[in-house]
Design goal:
By secondary structure, the chain is α+β, with helices and mostly antiparallel strands. It has three domains: 120 residues, Carboxypeptidase-like, regulatory domain (Immunoglobulin-like, Sandwich); 110 residues, no CATH class; 178 residues, no CATH class. It has ten helices and 24 strands. The strands form six sheets. The protein has a six-stranded antiparallel β-sheet, with no helix packed on it. Strands 2, 3, 6, 10 and 11 form a five-stranded mixed β-sheet that branches. Strands 14-15-16-17 form a four-stranded antiparallel β-sheet, with no helix packed on it. A hairpin with a 4-residue loop joins strand 16 and strand 17. Helix 7 crosses helix 9. The longest helix has 16 residues. The radius of gyration is 25 Å and the shape is globular. The two termini are 28 Å apart.
């Protein structure tokens, strides 16, 4: 489950899509340092007390369109920027960069040349507030390699299943905590006062991982470690940051081709849902759905498929159905009160839709629950169905759903095998392959259509 609490708070970034463009600035032939703009562009130069500011971001944001929209570009060596192809609207424009604090927001409209003044950070602490989350997370201490392998309760307290420091890192960086949270952002490197009052920061962390409807997954992840040690290390991390400790170094500003990227962002989710995945085309044929809608999957947070029309800057949503009204919902997940939402079960999803993919006909496929986990009789032991005779399965936690944008209709497909990710093959049958998640992660299914 990819539960990003920080993205619930900063949901503006949920619909981030990146498009490569040409050079971020066009130079006038008569004025080499000038920026030439069209009627749908914004451009100019960014300077500070020390001169041109290279490799900083210029952000243009508007609420005038059907969805909140922002475009972000990077300045060149001379501090010049060009924000291209802006829809007609009024924009707030400002500068952000490493070593800076955000400049005041200037109101403007496309077709204007706008020179901006960058604001140097008054202190290292002020500058660090803009560092990527991973820079803050790098302050987390981990057990030394010499402390492994784990020898259990009669030894060093670590589970005997922990054979190496690399396994510990896998849980806290790759296949555990970090897959659900952007650890190191403001929401995770601090302990919110709304969480409560505790005797120690370790107690606060124990309570924190029981907050919200993902508590079972968070408890499971930390249970793969020496739980007491892990809570102590996370507590030490937030205590040191609260005491003023900062990341070791300032990140480098974008250079080279990194400055040629235009980031376009739309706000197309809801305050209580998150985007797990999104799809815009068939990866095998990127001409499918050209300039068409982008489909997202909110997994455990909602049964509504978010849809973004990037050409019109408009958002829509459609409800993913289930076949059986008794299908479990994430609303019933075990949970502790959230410091942000209290005891309200903000997630309510029966479908747990996941991993959307376009097929060669422009239809969108999801791994999705269509009914309760208990499989129909034809999937279980005793069935004459060929796959059941070879490999009977009592349960499947997620199945398949297909959405046809032309008819705006869903087709629900109950699979005997559980699904998690899906992928279309490059064979003549366009075979749909799926992989399972959870305890049956070794199961692979396929569907010839």
């Amino acid at each position: 489950m990819k539960f990003k609490r920080s993205l619930q708070i900063l949901r503006f970034i949920l619909g981030c899509v990146l498009f490569g463009t040409a050079s971020p600035a066009s130079v006038s032939a008569t004025e080499p340092d000038a920026v030439t703009i069209g009627e749908n562009d914004l451009g100019g130069a960014v300077t500070s007390a020390t001169g041109p500011e290279a490799g900083v971001w210029v952000i243009a944001e508007t609420d005038d369109l059907p969805t909140k929209l922002a475009k972000i570009v990077v300045t060149d060596d001379n501090g010049r920027y060009l924000i291209p192809d802006l829809p007609k609207a009024n924009y707030r424009v400002w500068v952000r960069g490493y070593g800076l604090v955000d400049s005041p927001k200037t109101k403007t409209a496309p077709g204007e040349v706008l020179n901006l003044v960058a604001m140097a950070a008054p202190s290292a602490a002020a500058a660090a507030e803009y560092y990527p989350a991973i820079y803050w997370y790098s302050l987390l201490r981990i057990p030394a390699a010499s402390e492994f392998p784990g020898t259990g309760d009669k030894g060093n307290g670590m589970p005997e299943s922990l054979k190496s420091q690399e396994q510990w890192l896998d849980v806290v960086k790759t296949d555990g905590c970090y897959t659900c949270h952007q650890l190191g952002d403001k929401a995770t490197r601090t302990i919110p006062k709304e969480l409560g009052t505790f005797a120690s920061s370790a107690d606060a962390w124990e309570r924190r991982i029981q907050a919200g409807q993902a508590m079972a997954q968070m408890a499971s992840a930390i249970g793969r470690l020496d739980t007491a040690r892990a809570l102590s290390l996370f507590a030490n991390w937030t205590d040191r940051i609260a005491g003023g400790e900062l990341p070791f170094a300032q990140p480098s500003r974008p250079v080279g081709v990194e400055r040629n990227i235009v980031i376009t962002m739309w706000d197309w989710a809801t305050p209580t849902s998150y985007l797990h995945d999104e799809t815009s085309t068939d990866k095998r044929n990127p001409t499918i759905n050209a300039n068409g809608p982008i489909f997202g999957s909110p997994e455990e947070s909602s049964d509504y498929v978010p849809i973004l029309d990037p050409a019109r800057n408009a958002a829509d949503q459609i409800r993913m159905p289930v076949r059986d009204r008794d299908t479990p919902s994430s609303k019933d997940n075990s949970r502790g009160p959230s410091p942000y939402w209290g005891d309200v079960p903000i997630w309510d999803s029966q479908t747990s839709m996941h991993n959307p993919m376009f097929d060669e006909k422009g239809r969108v496929w999801f791994t999705s629950r269509v009914g309760p986990p208990t499989n129909p009789a034809f999937c279980r032991k005793g069935s004459d169905q060929p796959s059941a005779r070879l490999f009977p399965l009592e349960q499947s936690s997620r199945h398949l759903a297909m959405y046809d944008p032309k008819s705006r209709a869903f087709t629900l497909i109950r699979t005997c095998f559980p699904t998690h990710h899906l992928q279309f093959g490059f064979d003549a049958n366009n075979t749909l392959w799926t992989s399972a998640g959870g305890p049956q992660s070794g199961v692979v299914g396929w569907l010839n259509r």
